[in-house]
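Re: iron/sulfur cluster structure - here you go.
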Amino acid sequence: METNDELNKRIATLSQSIEQAYRANQSMEKALTECSEKLAQTRSQLIKVTNSKILFKLEKKWTTFWSFVSVFLDPGESSTSLREKFFMFFKTMWSWARNGFKLEEEQVALRRFEICKGCPELKTPDNQCKLCGCMMEKKTKLAGASCPLKKW
Ligand code: SF4
């Protein structure tokens, strides 16, 4: 049989243990809260980074697309109307399709491009032909394409 003193001691020890467990639980809760806050911050940073990457890619694509379209639409020093340019563009595409969308051999494309480089109708630095509005670095590679002045 335990005496009152012993029982009191036991109760005191038990309440100490309960208090320690309570404190440990509190600090664990604090650590968990901090952890989840940090996770939320990291998540929002990740979202920001991902969004900005996507936006950057979209912006880059749009800039490339727009620079191509604006160069094509820009009458500049061109003596050809937009209607004629579109007609020549579709003619080139049609001809390329009839040739099975093949690309010319590198030597042929290079020879064509060399002719364009010596032509006064070539606009630099875009390497765009003022007559057909095409980018000659690309057009010279297409099978079935031709020069509007029949230089190649
Ligand atoms: S396609 Fe013909 S007209 Fe146009 S730049 Fe080349 S050579 Fe000149």
